[in-house]
Give the backbone structure.
Amino acid sequence: MFSARSVASVARTGARTFAAAAPGKSMKPPVALFGVDGTYASALYTASAKTSSLDATHKALTSLKGVLAKDPKLVRILASPTLKTDDKKLVIAEVMKAAGQDKSIKNLLEVLAENNRLGLVGGIVEKFDVLMGAHRGEIEAIITSATQLDAKTVSKLEAAISKSPLIGAGKKLKTTNKVDPSIIGGLVVEVGDRTIDLSISSKVAKLNKMLTDAL
């Protein structure tokens, strides 16, 4: 049985092999990512940057992300540790149909298959989104509300967040509205590594603590 350290070593070796397959000057990822999927996402970024195909690769991954979201069976197949070599080739062929035959992604999938890591595809797609956002100078703001916000409200919140010192000069704001009924009401705003909790559930929790401490 492999230890966590040996698994990470295999991931790094496979990622280096994958990134080295692309010629040209090395292009360092804009931010450091952690985890095995982060290692592979960084390698994919480097390989795509070397061939000036970052946008094309990102587009292909976005298409792949949509396919994985619609096909839970494919996700389960990718995660299966018992896939035989011939089955892996068939799976890669099917995935490549969704990915638009992008060469960098094909190389990545072949390396993942070789290391029995095809189940990491979903995580790699998410991590690559993070790298592309940083590459484009985007700052992600996640606004969580109890119900879906209308476009006018989101626009007002974006304007307010854009004026915050958390958004550096020359940065682009990318806003996502997530719905979580458990917060009851109010908002939770996440910008980068900062969280501003203005939810009713948070206020209720604080009130409960104050009452408990007072008794």
